[in-house]
Design goal:
mainly alpha, two-stranded antiparallel sheet, 58% helix, 8% strand, DNA-binding transcription factor activity, transcription, DNA-binding
Length: 142
């Protein structure tokens, strides 16, 4: 997953939390970057037709952007579940965040064969907790 995909995933999640466009400030907070960095990347994503950005309202994913964001979120969910359920890593969320940018689609698909992923993934992702809803239910949000 590349940086653009991480931004798309974050826009997707913030849109779900805010039930509307993802504000630049909220994206900057979630990504741990400056608002200027968010504006720059949102501009690039808009040029690629993945995001629509309205000044003072925020960013909204296009259909293509939403598809890429969903794929990126699914990869992240696979990582979380693998780290939590198979490897039993205590801080699986931090590890998943660090690994998501270096895991490619082939590795994610192979990890997916090992875990017990829900068929509705990634739509089941708990945006507010920033983790797989099933891990939240299992007490992984301690």
């Amino acid at each position: 997953m590349n940086t653009a995909d991480q931004y798309l995933k974050t826009i997707y999640l913030v849109q779900r939390i805010e039930d509307g466009p993802a504000a630049t400030g909220a994206l900057a907070d979630k990504l741990g970057v400056s608002p200027a960095s968010v504006n720059e990347m949102v501009g690039k994503l808009q040029e690629r037709g993945l995001v629509e950005h309205e000044k003072y309202r925020g960013a909204t994913l296009t259909e293509d952007g939403e598809e890429r964001a969903s794929d990126a979120l699914q990869t992240y969910c696979i990582l979380e579940r693998f780290l939590a359920n198979v490897l039993e890593v205590d801080d699986f969320r931090m590890e998943a965040k660090q690994l998501e940018s270096v895991i490619d689609e082939t590795v994610a698909e192979r990890l997916d064969t090992i875990i017990d992923r829900e068929p509705q993934c990634p739509d089941c992702f708990h945006a507010e907790e920033d983790m797989c809803a099933y891990l939240v239910e299992e007490g992984g949000a301690d």
